[in-house]
Design brief:
- 2 copies of one chain form a homodimer.
- Chain A has 159 residues and is mostly helical.
- Chain A has 6 helices and 3 strands; from the N terminus they run H-H-E-H-H-E-E-H-H.
- Chain A has one domain: Orthogonal Bundle (Arc Repressor Mutant, subunit A), CATH 1.10.10.
- In chain A, strands 1-3-2 form a 3-stranded antiparallel sheet.
- In chain A, 25% of the residues are buried.
- The mean pLDDT of chain A is 89.
- Chain A binds a DNA duplex (30 and 30 nucleotides) through helix 4.
- Chains A, B: This is MarR family transcriptional regulator.
- Chains A, B: Pfam families: MarR_2.
DNA sequence: AAAAATTACTGCGCGGCGCAGCGAACTCCG
DNA sequence: CGGAGTTCGCTGCGCCGCGCAGTAATTTTT
């Protein structure tokens, strides 16, 4: 902590993190623009295709941070664009299952794959150990962010 | 590339990246909610404090992906809330320099530091070399995203 | 000196989003 | 059973961030 060279590394890392995450926001926006969708829609498709089973509107709302009302409209847009279909849940007739349409979503995943190939070149000069370091850091940050979000919600707000 | 263990690492890294970045979106939203700001505003403050010198409205527009008109309004909001000040550029009188107000931004950085203390525990078990690996990766990804965004813009759009 | 380019700002309309409220369906008890 | 309370998805409403197009001021170019 009092180690100056380490402190400098922290500082540099903090600054780089901000640019890194800002860059991601721009990237996501560019992907959405390219597909004629909104960033939220892209994230929703990403979540839908990552899950093995269809999600309910409520689950989508939770994973995107939207209200159920906004999630309904999100699904409306995706359905109108042909990316997903609504299916009533037979177990619970209040629920609506949202299923991605494979041939339509393929256009999105194809783009991801295409971009992913280029991303690989970034990692190509890293050793396996280094890749593990990076992956581990992401996983930790991911876990921590969840608890931090919860903490933010319970913290007293300024103003 | 044909190395199976390395391919697995890539796959894992890709999946983790998506969760990592999705988590960041939610985290950023939570921070913005907590401060009573918009995610874009928070990102802008993040960028401003990450840069050593004040930025122009045009530069802010570029870094956030907004048009100059929207960037003007973004600065309007931040100025009205007291987070930044506008200063005319003496070298080029068309330009307006946007400078963060330290004591006001302190409220934001205090939150970051508070959260960052916990984040530091994530880094504490990393060696200096490992920290450098992470930082370098971010820098590279940052650079690549720029070219990828350009590629997306020139790519033929589907539909 | 005139023309072109750059920078920041402003009216206008679009649309995503939260909020509050609705009906339908499910769960829990007595 | 059956009524109260809860959950789920949907809808009308208003807010406001954003892009677009145009403008004025300043700089750069010719």
């Amino acid at each position: 902590m009092t180690d100056p060279s380490r402190a400098r590394l922290y500082e540099e890392l903090a600054a780089e993190s901000r640019r890194y995450l800002a860059a991601y926001t721009l990237f996501n926006q560019a992907v959405a623009d390219h597909l004629g969708l909104h960033p939220t829609d892209v994230q929703c498709l990403s979540l839908l295709t990552a899950e093995p089973e269809p999600l309910t509107v409520k689950q989508i709302a939770g994973m995107t941070g939207l209200t159920t009302g906004s999630a309904t409209r999100l699904v409306d847009r995706l359905e109108r664009a042909g990316y997903v279909t609504r299916t009533p849940d037979r177990q619970d007739r209040r629920r609506v299952l949202v299923t991605p349409v494979p041939e339509r979503v393929a256009r999105v995943t194809a783009l991801w794959d295409d971009l992913g190939q280029t991303w690989q070149t970034v990692f190509d000069d890293n050793s396996e150990d280094e890749l593990k370091v990076i992956t581990r850091h992401m996983r930790r940050a991911n876990d921590l962010s969840r608890t931090q979000i919860e903490r933010l919600r319970t913290m007293p707000k300024p103003g």
